[in-house]
Structure formats: C-alpha cells, structure tokens
C-alpha cells in the first residue's frame, strides 16, 4: 500500500510527545534511531535540545509507525569553507538587504519509519509534512530545513528535494543537507 493523504488521515495521527512520555516499542532496523526514540528523546526534550513527534496507527492500538525529532538550527558562514562559498550560497536566494551572516533553519535530528510500514512512502510523506509545518503560517521565521543524513540515507533526502550544503563532507559517514522552504512557498499558503 502506497500512502496517500486520505489513507494517512484515516490511519495515522501525528502528535508531539509529552514532556515525560517515552516510547516503549519501535523498530526501524537501525539501532541508533531505535535507541534515540526509546531511550534518548526524553532526555533531549528535558534539556530543551529537541522535540520528538510520533506517528501513531489509530487502527493498531496507537502503535508508533514512525517518528521525527526537530531542533533549531541555522545555516551560517561557519558552515562553508570560505566567505566566497557562503556568498555563492546566498546570492541566488536573498536580495542584498537580506544578506545576513546566518539564516534560520530547523534541523531534522532523527527520522525513523518502523519496519512494518517501510516501503509505503511514509518517510517522504513525513518530510512533506515537516515542510508544510514550517511553511503554513510560518511559525518561527524558518527558511531552511537541515539534516545530517547518514551516508546511506543521502539518496532518500536528495530524492525528496534536499541538496548538499557543501562538497566537503561528500565521503563522510554523515552529510549536511538542506531544503529551502522558499521553494514550496505559495502566496496563499504563507498568508494567514
């Protein structure tokens, strides 16, 4: 089954984990991602470092089908090799009077999809959900989404519109990618 908006609305609910709430069961096949939602997300929340959201299956005793964690971030001059590279990055995105030393972003700290729903498009659906979360009535003045993607997840993020920030980490175990939310802004959506 490929996930559609209608199927998602009928089957799942997305909600923010409560302050002292933890997830008891989740398996996406990745030990680090499992450990985060099962053991660390509560600590990150208490320390005000990240907020986690779960996607629960309404038809299966609210089983956690997926999750994502978000934190504040920025894209700044220090992310680039030199000022020339940073200027090239911002030249095509901002008019001269909006050229700052850093730009607001939200970081997708973790995103995991349970093995039972892998292959349905849940991950791509969640990226679109997160994008719309920051674009509709732009709650925080956020311009970019960022992610430090594991090398094996880079193709997934690129398929979903993310691009590498710089070429320096091309052969690293993680790669810093970004998505420009302005690419999906529609005047009707941003009004409100």
Walk me through what this model shows:
- With 192 residues, the protein is α+β, with helices and mostly antiparallel strands.
- It is built from six helices and seven strands, in the order H-E-H-E-E-H-E-H-E-H-E-E-H.
- It has a seven-stranded mixed beta sheet, sandwiched between helices.
- The model has no long low-confidence stretch (mean pLDDT 90).
Radius of gyration computed on alpha carbons:
17 Å
Total strands: 7
Distance between the termini: 35 Å
Total of DSSP H or I helical runs spanning 4+ residues: 6
Share of helix, binned: 25-40%
Structural class: alpha+beta
Strand content: 25-35%
Read across the widest sheet, the strand sequence of neighbours is 1-2-3-4-5-7-6
Largest sheet geometry: 7 strands, mixed
Order of H and E elements: HEHEEHEHEHEEH
**Overall geometry:** globular
Mean pLDDT: 90
Could you list the spans in which at least 5 consecutive residues all have pLDDT below 50?
none
Please write out the topology.
Layout: H1 5-11, E1 12-16, H2 31-46, E2 51-57, E3 63-76, H3 83-91, E4 102-113, H4 122-135, E5 144-150, H5 154-159, E6 163-164, E7 174-180, H6 187-190
Parallel strand pairs: 4-5
Antiparallel strand pairs: 1-2, 2-3, 3-4, 5-7, 6-7
Name a few traits of the molecule.
192 residues, alpha+beta, 7-stranded mixed beta sheet, 6 helices, 7 strands, globular
Describe this structure in a few short sentences:
The protein is α+β, with helices and mostly antiparallel strands. The chain contains six helices and seven strands; from the N terminus they run αβαββαβαβαββα. 29% of the residues lie in helices and 28% in strands.
């Amino acid at each position: 089954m490929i996930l559609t908006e209608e199927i998602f609305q009928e089957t799942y609910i997305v909600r923010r984990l409560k302050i002292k709430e933890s997830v008891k069961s989740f398996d996406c096949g990745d030990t680090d991602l499992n450990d985060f939602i099962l053991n660390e997300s509560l600590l990150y929340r208490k320390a005000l470092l990240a907020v986690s959201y779960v996607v629960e299956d309404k038809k299966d005793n609210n089983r956690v089908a997926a999750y994502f964690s978000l934190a504040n971030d920025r894209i700044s001059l220090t992310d680039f090799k030199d000022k020339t590279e940073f200027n090239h990055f911002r030249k095509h995105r901002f008019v001269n009077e909006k050229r700052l030393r850093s730009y607001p972003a939200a970081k997708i700290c973790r995103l995991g999809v349970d093995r039972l729903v892998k292959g349905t498009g849940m991950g791509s659906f969640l990226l679109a959900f997160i994008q719309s979360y920051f674009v509709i009535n732009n709650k925080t003045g956020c311009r970019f989404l960022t992610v430090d993607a594991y090398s094996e997840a880079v193709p997934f993020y690129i398929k979903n519109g993310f691009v590498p920030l710089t070429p320096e980490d091309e052969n690293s175990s993680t790669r810093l990618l970004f998505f420009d939310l302005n690419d999906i802004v529609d005047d009707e959506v941003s009004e409100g």
